[in-house]
Amino acid sequence: MSKLIIQELNPRERTGIYVGWDSYKVAEKDALWTDGIASCISITLYDPLSKRGALAHISAAYFPEIPKFLYPENVINTLTKELHPYQGQLEATLAGEAFRLTKWASSLIRKKLQDSKILLVGEDLGNVTIGREVHFDCNTGEVTVYRYQ
Known about the structure:
This protein is mainly beta. The chain has one domain (about 5-145): CATH 3.30.1330.200. The chain is about 15% helix and about 40% strand. The chain has two helices and ten strands; from the N terminus they run E-E-E-E-E-E-H-E-H-E-E-E. It has helices at about 75-85, 105-115, and strands at about 5, 15-20, 25-30, 30-35, 40-45, 50-60, 90-95, 120-125, 130-135, 140-145. The chain has a five-stranded mixed β-sheet with strand order 1-10-9-4-2, with no helix packed on it. A five-stranded mixed β-sheet has the order 3-6-5-7-8, with helices on one face. The protein starts with a strand and ends with a strand. About 40% of the residues are buried.
């Protein structure tokens, strides 16, 4: 099972595959990480049996330069297609949405997770005024959210 860890300090090292804004990556037994998660949302999906995972960094906005497959209502379908075929039940974590007055994007994503029968094992949404960095170890399923200080 995935594990979500929240740290109130800056990461000591940044290893693995970097995921840029409005993009995603898939890895097997490797590490993924992204930064600049403030009003954006990071989503991890993890298959604990194959140790394959996906990390997406989405703006949760509708701009022409953002691919539609990364819109909040589409991102779960995009990631599950990339992880297919998965061997076990997928697990998810969410982080971000720090400055949003309403949590419309995370609500859409939660609904998609529920409809897809994907277990949400942890989240760190809102209440951070500076931002976050997310590190995802696909070998262990551990997701560490660093809250910038």
